Amino acid sequence: METQFDVVIIGSGAGGSPIAHTLVQAGKSVLILDKGPLLKPQYQNADGLSDFKRDELFADGPAKRITHNVANKGEAFYSSHIEPDINDEPHIYEEADGRELATIEGYTAQVVGGGTQLYGAVSLRFSPLDFRLQSFNAGRGDLVNDPNGDVQTEARDWPISYDNLEPYYVKAEQLVGINGTAPNQLKPFSKDNYQPPLEPNPISRYAKTGMEWLGKNTSNRESVLPYRTPLAVITRDHAPSGRKVPSDPETIKTSYVNRYGCPLGLKSNTWVSLLSPIANSSNFEIRPNCCVTRLECQGDKISRVVYLDPAGKERVVEGKIVIVACSAIESVRLLKISAESDPEFERRINQNDLLGKYFLTHCFGGASAIMPDRSDKSKALDADWAIDCCATEEFLKSKGLWAGGAVYNNTSDRALPISLGRNHRSTDLDTLWKGFIEDTSLVGDDLAQFLDNTVGRGLSVSFMANQLPLKRNRIELHPTVKDKWGRPVAYIRKIWHPHDQYLMSTLAQCCGDVLRFGVDPAGGTFQIEGQGGVYQAPNGLARIANHILGGARFGTDRNDSVLDPFCRAWDFDNLYVTDGSFMPTSGGANPTLTIQANSFRIADELLKRL
Amino acid sequence: MDLQILKLDEQYILNQCTKFLARTNTDNRHNFGQFNNDSIRAQIAESWRFPLLDSYSDGNDPVKSYNQNRVTFVYRHLRDNQPQSVSVIGSFANLYEAIPLQPVTFLEEPTGYYALTILVPKGEVHIYKYIVDSQAILDPINPQQITLDNGQIWSRFFTAFCTQPLCFDDWEYAILKRLVNRILPFRTKEGQNFIERYYNFLDSQSKDSLYPHAYRLDESVGAANFIDNILAREENHYLIDYKICLAQIDRILRQRNPFIEPAIMPREVYMDLYNEMSTDVVEGWNYNQYNSPLYFLQLLRRHTFTGAFAHPKYGGNIGAAGWAYLSERYSDSQKTLFDWRQAIEQPLGVNSDYHG
User: Fold this and answer.
1) pLDDT for B24-64, tens place per residue?
2) CA-to-CA distance for A440 and A442, rounded, in angstroms?
3) Do A455 and B310 lie within an 8 Å CB cutoff?
4) Which residue from A36, A311, A445 is facing B112, i.e. has the nearest CB?
5) Could you say which of A60, A295, A310, A459 would form a disulfide bridge with A78 (CB–CB 3.0 to 4.6 Å)?
6) Residues of A in contact with B46 (CB under 8 A)
7) Which residues pair with A576 in a beta bridge?
């Protein structure tokens, strides 16, 4: 059994896998430890079966009850087969009134491939502006709902620019396997590596029409046009990973995409796209079902990585380089737990007070409506059309906004029958089923009517935008609640800034307009169900969209950041953090592709020193 | 009967065991009222998952293999001294012959897990015990147990597409079906037409054994059967709610209509009852015994809707009748607008790339 490696990587998702992929191919010895199981697609198993199924009860399993002594004790929860059990490993968050609640929000999946197994696969680049929001906002006096000037105080430029990261976006798009279109994206592409998209679902034509209207009516000097949303689902045979698509690629569209692992391995999770190609290399090993419990250091070196094996036995490995990439909340938690048991580690990781601070998610929300006619939504991937008109400098200045975001339509939501009930009037994973079971009028003929109104007719348009960084938004260790190993769980304490709320309302209006003008291009009078931002949800403070970012931001000033520009902890020689926690701002798009691109960048840096 | 034993896949076993079984904390975090607090099951997550149930393919013909499940028995030894032998006896094998479980290793070291994977036909219920160093014991993990007529207690499991009664007496099942029918849309005129046609269609297809238990297809499209299944396994903690409330409903309906069996009372009786339950005020309800008929109704609503539209392997949506109802109801002139078959494995659906 090997215990010494060039590189030990904790977490096999978007932050860890690009590094393993690069370093193994360069001949370095790499071990990945992942808390979750290794679930393979059909083509990798001798019997031709996968542990992932097209099964609605996999996405959200049977009812369990929260048993922790928190304010929502006794309430039902439904987690995916590869999300943690809240009773074993909850996230606790603080409500506005000070109550503490357990939540499933903020977890990615605990499985080899991490969040990329369940994600909706939207793989947008951040815009060049997302990397320099401090510079962009310097001296502005027009920002709405920011009386204390928090934007100017708290916005940060990234220590790298879009141009620095662009070659790695290109590399990630090629190696991960993404379909979409580059024209009309307001981001410079040195190379277009997208596979061709599939035919959009017929219902998405309304989104396209609406986006075309929006692109002409958002204070941009030139009209902005929609493009096919880049999705990490292959539509053609993918040479870098050796994956093949079905003879009729259109059959890939099943709506078992967002929140489902892909049994055919067509969704480009990091296991099938980046790790499988190196899986048989003698210098690569992955140990699934292994939970890292702490790091130990000698001086500025991480000397030991301590983990529990699948039976719960403690084991130790060593790496010349140690990469922490277990998603922002869990990475911060691991570092904080390590600091609690080792004063040297504590002194080094907390050389300033920023670890866990500036935790970020996204300002997100949108609008939804019932379309006049019906389409077969069971044949869809997650998003068909996207537009960048709400991320331009002109748009932001016209609205007094500090930052913008992407707008895209969701096609696979409310596509499958159980999800119609489960998501009726519910806004998040913590309130699944609540709306349906409480709406007792949906019975018999009225239930038939409900199905008539909703099957194949719901269309929603979402935005994904930057959240203003605030120091008080933070991840801590909870003082009393412990996980199944007796380790303190993560405590999420965050609020929305008034400017965030304004931003969400503004972009929700844009999403609403996409639907209103999508059906009625001339007048925009079509009635929609509603529009809004996540802050308006009953548990809006918990809402994270599984985009967990910040908490260990990188920067050029050691007093203002946890990590240096190459994501190395300032006072350690060999400790890197490469999941979304490095981000100083959350970007105006889903973060996975940017995490992957950054990890490819870090990998090149590591090659210089190994 | 020839028992087919599959080669042990250690990665598969560990994938299923670590999350649910491995832990040091001994709080009763997973007791929602269904366990004694001194039961190990109160401490581990989702003990109902054991023995593990999965789909099966011989690697060549997943359609031919479709009628069988992989069943994996897992024994975890908690004490220090490892047993000399662990085996299983059960109704799935000849004359209760003991079939050995193999130790599962990680990095060439024993994990304390022992496992065995066999094939069992779908739609079956079986009893079993472990033999640990020649001592017969109940499965310490799986909560499903059954007391036989001779008073002996055995561990139990059932495979997919199960339509044998598990939790309810006939009278309970009859009332449950009526309640489920009240909720679902299949009692509408079109709904009933659909069910009749679909039932006949299934009947004519049944010789290829695709839908072996279609006889339980009715207006509930098997949703009541799904509820029976889920209460026997995944959501056993809600069985007590059903037991109490179905008895109350039986009593109340008999008080209201002394001369008719609840199972055959007119539809209006159940509509009235549903409406009363939805206000949480039911005349004759014993609130001391169960304080919220509305809570039970809400539980029933979730289970009913899920049962009608979940994958048929869970025991509802029999013959995919729930999906077929949507598929027929929603179509344009040329084609359905809910083409569930194209995503779903054969022989249930038509997708030849996905094997279920």
Assistant:
1) 999 999 999 999 988 999 999 999 999 999 999 999 999 99
2) 5
3) no
4) A311
5) A60
6) 64, 85
7) A323, A568
